[in-house]
Amino acid sequence: KMAAAAGAAAAAGLWSEVNRCGQNGDFARALKSVNKILQINKDDVTALQCKVVCLIQNGNFKEALGVINTHTKVLTSDVIAFEKAYCEYRLNRIESALKTIQSASQQTDKLKELYGQVLYRLERYDDCLAAYRDLIRNSQDEYEEERKTNLSAVVAAQSTWEKVVPEDLGLREATYELCYNSACALIGQGKLNEAMKKLQKAEELCRQSLSEDSDVTEEDIEAELAIIHGQMAYIMQLQGRTEDALQLYNQIIKLKPTDVGLLAVIANNIITINKDQNVFDSKKKVKLTNAEGVEHKLSKKQLQAIEFNKALLAMYTNQADQCRKLSASLQSQSPEHLLPVLIQAAQLCREKQHAKAVGLLQDFADQHPANAAEIKLTMAQLKIAQGSVTKACMILRSIEELQHKPGMVSALVTMYSHEEDIDSAIEVFTQAIQWYHQHQARTNHGCCVFQPKSPVHLSLIREAANFKLKHGRKKEAISDLEELWKQNPKDVHTLAQLISAYSLVDPEKAKVLSKHLPSSDTLSLKVDVDALENSHGATYVRKKAAKLTGDNQQKEQGQGEVKKKKKKKKGKLPKNYDPKVTPDPERWLPMRERSYYRGRKKGKKKDQVGKGTQGSTTTGSSELDASRTASSPPTSPRPGSGAAVSAASNVIPPRHQKPAGAPATKKKQQQKKKKGAKGGW
User: Fold this and answer.
1) What is the DSSP letter of 664?
2) Beta bridge partners of 450
3) Considering only Cβ atoms within 10 Å of each terminal Cβ, which end of the chain, N or C, has fewer?
4) Residue pLDDT, tens place only, 475-506
């Protein structure tokens, strides 16, 4: 009895210690006291509950959950349901947390709060919205502002990820969290300018709120503003202001925020800006997206977008195997998603395997008809890149839901015209017009009533008529023109086209139709003559005419004046010029282009020794032969030879004569002139 009394007294003291430490927030010391109590009584339910709470407060969620699972007989779900669900939630076991909450016999306010958080993490936004509305309606405490913030976060998520138009909740945006969530909802709707204003307001409220606390530094404020600035940069990126966005993104990264989710999103957005440029920076940024815990901070669509960009980056960095591996993994996770297949096709195209890429896309289109249109557009683009325009047209025409669209009709007609396949182009027009004919009719009380042609329908008919007229298909254009004129009998332009077409086919019909043309008396040409004369074109013509008139007058005045003739200077004659000798007719040609030019010997100088036996001179043997008389025809000396200048007086100077053995005609050499080549007398 005395031992029991002593144990009870010790336990009472320990409980007092636990209570005091709990009030002071010293849960580590409280845990020590609780453990001592459990040594006295290991199945004490209150002590076990206190131990779980102390472990949760100290962040030891795994250990706390272990205590709960070890003492399931004592700690039943009715007693410890919230603590168990909370531990599972914090350990990212979201599905288990949901089961724990749903299995609880009594749904307390704490469980309802946690239930809302769990639904948000599971991205069940409709159920989450209903849970928070119920909480706000049935709760009155100091946490009402936090609940409204969570409610606005759910609405923002619906707008962003599910493209749901958010309803006006009537929340007063008194805090920066509410302003931020409202901005996110506006971004989801595409209202970027309004969203930017909301974010600027959120930044202002955040600064005001945090500056009131003297313990908060400027660095703490910037760290808190990082998520707001990140969203601002995202808006800039969507608006095409990529340089501003990139600068702001890098500023946030330099702050080194602790939120790994924020860093991952910013790094991903920088990669999307870099695209196939600056891949070294992109490879560094990818590491931020692989940080521990990122998968628990981001939504499924955010994580999927990051994985897509990793695959694209692998393709841009020529990591073909890595690209195929990532895209195949993405396709297995989302078989109906389009992007993984497009990435695989792009990689095959980079490897010059276009046929294989087209086959891959065709298989996906057959398996997923809902995405067939986008896939076939890509296939057509690949065919055009290969130069197979006709095959590309066949693929485009197989997209039934786009056959009648003006953009598709225009593309097909342009491509067929490029291939000079006018019949197929006209067939495209005909099919599109027939589609509008069939879908224009409506049934009213059992009878078929045709509405007036829609603007798109009439535009197609007009384009078809113009195309046929342009390519000489006037007979085929007549039916289209008649249809247009029937819709608008006052359209003079269409009537004129119709008459022009009939004039070559049926002149009598053209005459009949010409009676419908308005007479010249009824045409009121409201022309402002003064405005027309003062227009730019008329002013230019008038100035030009005036200038021409002035020039003519000057010419007429100058005809009576006798112009003074300038004296021509006499040209300089060479020093050895002899007027009795006929000048060489080729003197104006460079020496190299003259008919008697024999070329220059390398290293030749004025008095160099000629070729031959040793001791021989450059003088010809005929000049040294004394038996030769003066009556013999003189041998033409080489230019520059000293012996030739001292010959008899009846010899013609070398610059005024042709060589004796020169042929009468010779083709001019097609060589470039050298710098020193000049013609001489």
Assistant:
1) S
2) 441
3) N
4) 778 777 777 777 777 777 878 887 887 887 77
